Amino acid sequence: MEPPGWVKGNIVDPTCHWIMAKSPESCNLKPAMRLICLLLIASSLASPADDWPQWFGPRHDGVWRETGILDKFPEGGPKVLWRTPIRRGYAGPAVAGKRVYLMDREVDRSAGAKRESARTGAQAGKERLLCLEAASGKIVWEKSYDCAYTMSYPAGPRVTPLVEGERVYTLGAEGLLVCRATKDGRELWQHDFKERFQAKTQTWGFAASPLIHGDLLICLAAGDGTTAVAFNKETGKEVWRALSARQPGYCPPRIVKHAG
């Protein structure tokens, strides 16, 4: 049975982990806050869980390949290991190397920000990337940056972080692509799609998760000849660009083997 005001969130590990988020609409928390907790089923402790380093899993196909996946929770529910307060957002968590990475957003509610919002129509605030210890929920590091929102449903970021090796990639709701070091969150490189490609923020924001293919990080940006763009995943240097569209859409790119 779920506690009052709680809603089920994204499955991080069907073998033993669940993410649950407390709905700000159904509780007394501040709107800019939500509560995340990792639940561990004691009977699943025998075998460690595989990583889930990006949207739709390790192979980008939504398939969990572990054995012994639970059909149902034990009576009384799973055991709560830890809880960590975070802010609002739509992006799912990524799990890699015994760490959890997720993005959220804090709205600037100062008088000055409200006046500016009334003048421009943009909502001031900061997007943030959090790195937590998977075992304890302790914050290892966090990095935030100013990001005024211009889209509908401006609660927070849409795109799940992508983790590979010593790098974590994020794409904010206003089109800021950032590569950071997983060790300490240090920025390695970034591209602002709105500045670089003259892309426009679509109704629901930038929401298509990037895809790694070999040495490439493939993204949807929109613009003239830049709907799809590939960067070197280590240096951030643009490798190629293709297609034209006013908006990139929301469906993440996929690599498909066709006719053989």
List the helices and strands and how they pair.
Layout: E1 6-8, E2 17-22, E3 33-40, E4 79-87, E5 94-96, E6 99-107, H1 111-120, E7 125-133, E8 139-146, E9 162-164, E10 167-171, E11 176-181, E12 187-192, H2 193-196, E13 211-213, E14 216-220, E15 228-232, E16 238-242
Antiparallel strand pairs: 1-2, 2-3, 3-4, 5-6, 6-7, 7-8, 9-10, 10-11, 11-12, 13-14, 14-15, 15-16
Strand content: 35-45%
Radius of gyration: 19 Å
- Helix percent reads under 10%
> Per CATH, what is the topology?
Lipocalin
- Unreliable sequence segments: 1-34, 37-47
Distance between the amino and carboxyl termini: 49 Å
Order of helices and strands: EEEEEEHEEEEEEHEEEE
Shape: globular
The CATH class is identified as Mainly Beta
- Look at the structure and give the mean pLDDT: 84
Number of domain modules: 1
Order of neighbouring strands in the sheet with most strands: 1-2-3-4
CATH architecture: Beta Barrel
Q: What profile does the largest beta sheet have?
A: 4 strands, antiparallel
Number of helices: 2
Helix-strand category: mainly beta
How many beta-strand runs?
16
